[in-house]
Amino acid sequence: MSVSEKYYPAEPTAPVVKTTTIPGPESAKGIKSLGEVFDSRPVYFIADYEKSLGNYIADVDGNVYLDVYAQIASIALGYNNPALIEAAKSPEMIRALVERPAIGNFPGKDLEGIIKNVLKGAPKGQNNVWNGLSGADANELAFKAAFMYYQSKQRGYDTAFSAQENETVMKNQSPGSPDLAVLSFKRAFHGRLFASGSVTASKPVHKLDFPAFKWPKAEYPSYKYPLAENAEYNAAEDARCLKIVEELITSWHIPVAALIIEPVQSEGGDNHGSAAFFQGLRDITLKHNVVYIIDEVQTGLGATGKLWAHEHFNITPSPDLVTFSKKFQSAGYWFHDPKFVPNQSYRQFNTWCGDPAHMIIAGALVKEIQENDLVAKAAEVGDYLYGKLAELAVKYPQHIQKLRGQGKATFIAWDLESADKRNALLYKMKQNGVNVGGCADVSVRLRPTLTFEKKHADIFVSILDKVLSDF
After folding, report:
1. Which of 418, 403, 420 is nearest to 461 (CA)?
2. Could you report the per-residue pLDDT of 250-298, keeping only the tens digit for each?
3. What mean pLDDT do residues 38-45 have?
4. Fewer CB within 10 Å: N-end or C-end of the chain?
5. Distance between CA 190 and CA 158 in Å, rounded?
6. Angle at 246 between CA 243 and CA 248, to 5 degrees
7. Backbone phi, then psi, for 416, in 5-degree steps?
8. What is the reported pLDDT for 466?
9. Is residue 189 annotated as a catalytic residue, yes or no?
């Protein structure tokens, strides 16, 4: 029995499309009504989650779509997963939701066990976690941790703050509020808050009209595909980008305390980096005393055929901080150096210090993924799907360009010849019963669940072939 059959014996065997337009009439009415209390302009359709199951999402018009977007890459096991439903019914979940404890001051007796279950999902080389509320929050918390760590190394971890530091920080002035920077990369996406917005550079709409830190942005490699046929060019591209990183760190007008990077730049176009590039960044950050942060918000929890995408690179020594959210359902950052715990309490702190309810779900997810070997199964399905798409790329070279993600499970993307064509493809796929997403201007990205199997891949490829044949 396959894992999808185990979880979802009644899962649909194919999409069902009942309306000629997406959104259908009931969704259109719902979107208009919802717009009176919520900004519904980005809504694709009104989902019916009670009728959604496994890898299929239903809408209120009775359409049932094969979902290869999975709530913007944030559903790990599929809709109405029975194991997660059981976790949601637990006494620990009731307490977490009803009491919503301020765990920094008043942790419940069950918190230690909840956190230990979360830690079972830690990346290699990481053995501690600090929890947050969202992906952007995770990155902002990581920046705080990095800045405090960086300054403590300058001052001495156990050295008391000076009177001048205590006085100037209340005026947002140095040295209490030091002038420090985080280096990020062009085309990156790390969130929509203030510090996370300052390191985001994928689309203007993500950050227009609010103030930003004037921090440096390096260049993320732009590879030629297929990779095997362009190894020499791509190695030179790695070297070019690494040189830019080091030049920025050594020449920026204020110290660069941290560097943040995605293993695959997701919102920015599914841009991949190599093991050599990511190890090169590690070498540079060690050389210049820069905290190395890997943003695994979208790439984490098995989506690329490793539990965490940066594990493909075997980075040595391990990154300093690894942020997470989305498929993990919780949020925060992993770390291993105990000195990333600030030298005084209440420095990395807020009312809730994370969300125990979602930490419970995260622990349940890790249990299911590990017990069912879902990461290895996703890698196998991804190889199968990539092979099928490579065949379509030969058949439709103008519509499947720069196919990428080989060896990265179902974390697959490709480009179309224009933004209009990409957007038309996304819509045509919905009209044919497939919910799929885009990124950057011309890219299609696949983000299915870990229970997505070869039978689902065959349906997806068959529908894509049909749509492209009429393009």
Report:
1. 403
2. 999 999 999 999 999 999 999 999 999 999 999 999 999 999 999 999 9
3. 97
4. N
5. 32
6. 110
7. -105, 175
8. 98
9. yes
Full strand arrangement of the beta sheet holding 64-67: 56-58, 64-67, 434-435
Domain 3-68+373-469 of CATH type 3.40.50.740: no
How far is it, in rounded angstroms, from Cα 351 to Cα 100?
Answer: 10
The whole-model pTM stands at 0.97
* 288: three-class secondary structure by DSSP: coil
Q: What angle do CA 439, 184, 301 make, to 5 degrees?
A: 55
Closest CA to 150 of 185, 179, 193, 189: 179
% the chain with pLDDT above 90: 99
Q: Decide: 416 and 425 in contact? Cβ < 8 Å.
A: yes
Tokens (6 digits) for 301: 């929890």
pLDDT-derived band at 76 (thresholds 50, 70, 90) equals very high
The pair of three-digit structure tokens given for residue 422, joined into one six-digit string: 């990409």
Q: Which of 137, 207, 304, 326 is catalytic?
A: 326
Q: pLDDT tens-digit profile of 105-120? A: 999 999 999 999 999 9
Instruction: Classify burial at 344, counting beta carbons within 10 Å of its beta carbon; exposed 0-12, middle 13-18, buried 19 or more.
Output: exposed
Catalytic residue, chosen from 143, 189, 340, 460, is 189
CB 213 within 8 A of CB 177: no
**Tokens describing residue 419:** 């933004």
- Phi/psi zone of residue 386: left (φ > 0), alpha (ψ -120 to 50 degrees), beta? alpha
Q: Nearest CA to 313 among 304, 303, 323?
A: 304
Question: How many whole angstroms separate alpha carbon 377 and alpha carbon 383?
Answer: 10
Q: Tell me the per-residue pLDDT of 347-393, one tens digit each, with 9 for 90 and over.
A: 999 999 999 999 999 999 999 999 999 999 999 999 999 999 999 99
Calculate ∠ Cα 174-216-165, nearest 5°.
Answer: 10
- Which segments of the chain belong to CATH 3.90.1150.10? 3-68+373-469
User: Of 213, 185, 366, 376, which is closest to residue 271 (Cα–Cα)?
Assistant: 185
- Answer for the pair 284, 250: CB distance below 8 angstroms, yes or no: no
Q: Yes or no: is domain 91-370 CATH 3.40.640.10?
A: yes
Choose, from 61, 270, 295, 320, the residue flagged as catalytic: 295
Q: Tell me: cis bond preceding 9? Omega within 30 of 0 counts.
A: no
Contact (CB, 8 A) for 364 and 87: yes
Q: Is 367 a residue of the active site? A: no
